[in-house]
Amino acid sequence: MRVVLFGPPGAGKGTQAHRLADRMDLALIATGDIFRANVANDTDMGREAKSYMDKGELVPDDVVVRMVVDRLDEEDAHRGFILDGFPRTLPQAQALENELAERNRPLSAVLKFSVPDEVAVKRLAGRRTCRRCQRSYNVEFKPPMGQGVCDVCGGELYQRDDDHEDTIRHRLEVYHHDTEPLEFYFWERGLFRQVEAEGTEDEVTNRALEAISDLLEDA
Ligand code: AP5
């Protein structure tokens, strides 16, 4: 099973990626998380990525593609994967398709999580993220049991540098301009389903699982 999750910032891709990867025993590959780990470790790639991420811009395609291709070749990804936040541009989508074709491991499903922009802004403004395992919480919708501490791994919760309203709104513009058009690319390939991403986390997970089984039946 090889699944891509896309949708606007704040749609709940990261939240659902963790849940689906656990349920289906798949590797979780989240490009934003990989960049943030590089920023934390002060690598060359981290320093380059940070200059784009802090402004809400996309990191250049060649940097992202190289990083994802390396990650796809790691052993855990061979049993299947969830890609969260990649591809986000047409060149990224084409590169992914070519690399997977070379490995005879085509995509199984592409799910778009959809929420109105104002819901996304509200969710992101209240988000707190675990420094250790990257799980998302929300001061309003999903507070952690202990203040400032991840329920799952005990890591420290923090507010991301790009989760401030003006940057959130810019990320939404970039999404609508650069990423949303990929819908048609994947629809043409018979891989695309839209998932309504409002409701409880369980409801959204169930809709996502139904969409995946629909696509597998149609394949
Ligand atoms: P990335 O980290 O991927 O951020 P994003 O796409 O902007 O998405 P988010 O993580 O903000 O939101 P999400 O949809 O995962 O929502 P979440 O589950 O956390 O990318 C960051 C940056 O890295 C980019 O801007 C770019 O610079 C760079 N980058 C990454 N990939 C790249 C690529 N391929 N190419 C170029 N550059 C790239 O949930 C959000 C909040 O909502 C949380 O508080 C959560 O608790 C809450 N929530 C979730 N579900 C629900 C629900 N059902 N009801 C109520 N609240 C909910």
Please give a structural write-up.
- The chain is built from 9 helices and 8 strands.
- The protein has helices spanning 13-24, 31-40, 44-53, 61-72, 90-102, 117-125, 165-179, 182-188, 201-218; strands at 2-6, 27-30, 81-84, 109-114, 127-130, 136-138, 157-158, 192-196.
- Strands 2-3-1-4-8 form a 5-stranded parallel beta sheet, sandwiched between helices. The protein has a 3-stranded antiparallel beta sheet with strand order 6-5-7.
- Helix 4 runs parallel beside helix 5 (90-102).
- It starts with a strand and ends with a helix.
- 36% of the residues are buried.
- The structure holds BIS(adenosine)-5'-pentaphosphate.
- Residues 9-15, 31-32, 35, 52-53, 56-59, 64, 85-86, 88, 92, 123-124, 126-127, 136-138, 141-142, 162, 171, 199-201, 204 line the site of BIS(adenosine)-5'-pentaphosphate.
